[in-house]
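A reminder from the course coordinator: this example appears on the midterm review sheet, so study it carefully.

Given structure:
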């Protein structure tokens, strides 16, 4: 240590930064949602899926933001499920989690969407049956069958979740959950750093 840095003549200050990045996820989510609404029909999915994905990422990040400051040894719980983290933080703040009500119901759907996205794989739908008159040439029967009733659908496929309506629900749920937690922390007088915050300590006062 040089004389200019001597603890006899200078205070030694420890500086740390409590860094948060969830606001970047929020910005991306909202930007993608805006693009989705401006895009032509048939191409909206290119923006809807990222917007919905970042809404899910946003919730996961605020779970870690609040959980790490409210719950001891949170790092040991980081492998908990998506819904498990939401429940843990909510229960710590005495908020009742009812998966049949909003925003919890939408958050549960967000979990299903996340799983469909992360574990994306080809699936065969359940069969459906269509009757085509025998007056039709046999070679044309498959085409006629599709014209009559279209393709079968899978209610749990990735694209079954993709819509402007669901995108807006996801964004609302992410925003509402943080409002709930922030408001509860305020009333319970929990000092939560929601934004990047410098933490300083004078070591030789």
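Designed residues:
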């Amino acid at each position: 240590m040089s004389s200019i840095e001597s603890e006899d003549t200078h205070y030694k200050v420890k500086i740390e930064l409590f860094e948060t990045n969830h606001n970047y996820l929020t910005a991306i989510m909202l930007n993608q949602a805006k693009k989705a609404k401006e895009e032509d029909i048939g191409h909206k999915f290119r923006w809807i899926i990222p917007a919905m994905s970042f809404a899910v990422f946003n919730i996961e990040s605020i779970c870690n933001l609040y959980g790490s400051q409210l719950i001891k040894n949170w790092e040991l719980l980081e492998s908990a499920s998506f819904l498990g983290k939401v429940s843990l933080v909510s229960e710590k703040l005495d908020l009742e989690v009812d998966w049949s009500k909003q925003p919890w119901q939408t958050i549960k759907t967000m979990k299903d969407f996340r799983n469909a996205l992360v574990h994306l794989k080809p699936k065969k739908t359940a069969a459906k049956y269509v009757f085509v008159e025998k007056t039709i040439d046999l070679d044309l029967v498959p085409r006629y069958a599709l014209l009559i009733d279209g393709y079968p659908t899978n209610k749990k496929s990735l694209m079954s979740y993709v819509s402007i309506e669901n995108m807006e629900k996801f964004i609302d749920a992410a925003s509402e959950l943080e409002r709930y937690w922030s408001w509860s922390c305020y009333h319970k007088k929990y000092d939560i750093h929601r934004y990047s915050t410098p933490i300083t300590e004078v070591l030789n006062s």
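The chain has six helices and two strands. The chain has one domain: 3-123+158-202.
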